[in-house]
Write a structure and sequence with these properties.
Blueprint lengths: L2 H10 L3 E10 L5 E12 L3 E3 L1 H10 L3 H18 L7 E4 L4 H4 L2 H12 L6 E6 H5 L2 H13 L3 E7 L5 H7 L4 E4 L1 H6 L2 H17 L2 E4 L5 H9 L4 E2 L10 H9 L6 H11 L19 H4 L5 E6 L2 E7 L1 H9 L5 H8 L7 H14 L3 E7 L2 E13 L2 E12 L2 H14 L4 E6 L4 E7 L12 H11 L3 H10 L2 H5 L5 E10 L2 E11 L5 E7 L1
Parallel strand pairs: 2-4, 4-5, 5-6, 6-7, 7-8, 8-9
Antiparallel strand pairs: 1-2, 1-9, 2-3, 10-11, 10-14, 12-13, 13-14, 15-16, 15-19, 17-18, 18-19
Helix pairs in contact: 3-5, 19-20
Bound molecules: ligand C2E and magnesium ion (2 copies).
The site of ligand C2E has 26 residues, from strand 2, helix 2, helix 3 and strand 6.
Length: about 500
Amino acid sequence: MDFIKEFDNAIKSGHIVAYYQPLTRAVTGAVCGAEALARWIDPNVGVIPPSEFISILEENRLIYKLDLAIIEDVCRFYNENKDMNLNFSVNLSRIDFVEVDMFSLIDDILKKYNVPSNVIHLEFTESTMIQNTSITRTLFNQFHNAGFEIWIDDFGSGFSSLQVLREYDFDVLKIDMSIIKQFDTSSKKILYSIINMTKKLGMHSLAEGVENYEQYQFLKNIGCEIIQGYYFSKPISKKEFLDYLKIRKIESKEDNEYWNKAGYLNFLSADPLKSLSNFNDSDIISDAAPLALIEFHNDKFKYYFINDQYRTELKKLGFETIIDLENAVNDEKYENRENFIIQVKNSILHGDIQRVDNIINNVVFSHFTKLISKMDNKYLIASSINSISTKRTDFLVLKYSQSLYKTYDCVTEITPKEDSAVQIYSTAGFAKIYGTKSLREGINEFASNEVKPSDKERYLKFFDLAKIINMDGTYIQDIFLIRSGDSYKLKNVRISKIDNEKYLYTIQSI
Ligand code: C2E
Ligand code: MG
Ligand code: MG
């Protein structure tokens, strides 16, 4: 077939169309978009794949017409199925930029169909970025400023991938399928490192060419956000794609923003440079911290994801599966539920990492939570657990000191001379202020945020460090209205002398 001779007619007759390959959010399994891939449907020959005509069209400087035709086809699809709110990525060729003003041409199409620019993501390969650098840079900025996302396609297939990353800010990095295809220890190490790097660079990650469940699970576990490949679907016609969407969950616009934020969370080690030289397959993930993603909605918990480390920790606490844990924390009768809810609510309120120590199944452990993103009244919480000890003595010390401390809302050791504080214990419902900053800052912040405004002045006078250092007796004590949930309650605040340097600051309900 003479592609060049037939080309104009094929475009005019609508023989060149977009096929759609779904993009799947790894942690939820929902369809979050599709890549539009060109197919030439010849009435006599049938479906012709791009490998047969792309390079010929490039050589003849006609490729831009094809790329625009695909964008136009995508705009039509978007308009016919507006309620689905899907996003699309389209491919641009490096030759596109040589002859025509691609920005204006694309802009015109979007205006004609009234499609917002953030719906169409533009895939560039590194060859585009390396050649025609000055033209590309101008275009890149033009597209970005106009609200388009720019994705780097086939990352890792060329020689200059890293140079391109250094010079341009991409929104999504698409990992070339050649790396996934091998799926041996060496490619896993590379995948692991690329994902780690995307998180550091604040980019989202997508893996192409995912063909089986094992690859999908591996990628999901190392925190790759989006999956594309035959495992979910080949590129399919518009009609087939609509049928496919009928049986799949589609990610809403709000869900998209919600999960995009979670994408920046690094599922992997805090130390990405940890020697890559002598570890085996299982080590690839095992140096990551235990991590779970939990959705908190109307006092219900839903676990979206846990990594292997988290699973190991859970077993120590006596939970065989994530379902067991989910059932327990959603059971009104479960003794740790209330404290867990309070901890999560504190994470939502304060935004910082909340830590609560506890004992379950004779294991002393710390539970850390942090708010990752929110949508309406749904909150996505990252959770990490760290079993501190199973030693009998540690267990007893914590157990008895906790029952002792339970008579207090908060116990903090303060050292006025060093302007420091260490919070020893606080009920989950009590804001953690002391111990996270200098003592003076802590006092001021506590007075402003936790003490009823009418009591603030008096609290600051009470907590006068010069007065405390020269304290006559063994303690000073007063009563203040202190925040308790949405209201204020009377609490007994006491500062007791331990020795010449240290004092114990306690708050007790009355
Ligand atoms: P690409 O942009 O990297 O697209 C991904 C290619 O990988 C597609 O091939 C897709 O069918 C294939 N693929 C996806 N998942 C799997 C998988 O699990 N296993 C295997 N073996 N392959 C998978 P396709 O559609 O033949 O396109 C090939 C290339 O042609 C594209 O690579 C892109 O560079 C180019 N192309 C396609 N459509 C257009 C277009 O509209 N404009 C331009 N300029 N280039 C296009
Ligand atoms: Mg592509
Ligand atoms: Mg690609």
